Amino acid sequence: MSKKQLLKKISLLFPAILCIAILHAQQPTTKNQQAAQQAVIKMFDALSNRDSVSLKTHSTADITLYEYGQVWNIDTLILKAITLNQSADFKRTNSFEFINTKVDKTTAWVTYRLQSAITRDGKQSMVQWLETVILVKVNKQWRVKHLHSTLIKRS
Length: 155
Fold this sequence. Notes:
Distance between the termini: 51 Å
CATH topology: Nuclear Transport Factor 2, Chain: A
Strand content: 35-45%
Largest sheet: 6 strands, mixed
């Protein structure tokens, strides 16, 4: 085998080895961590569906949200994200990249990147945030109690 052929095989094999190493290095999430992450996803599904009942189901009654330099409660969130959002063609699709999830008996801390593709009034936009939520267990279910959001990019 020539040196050129050997280098070609190594160059094809290197990305595969790198991917395996990266995947192997990631810690598997526990069922409790997955449940906390799912609570976050379900809360955003409720926002996407403009469903205030489901939104309240996945958050605590005293939820606080730190958005755009303001402090919101559940009523502010419902007003801004649901009541004032009456566009007939509204569609929001969320994707999450979970960075860190820590869980103890009754509290969870979840940090993630959120990207949302939003269609409203015939216009499409892509918004990216870095967010951290604190969840608490209420009747054996994780609920969002605090959410801090940092806008990364809007296009």
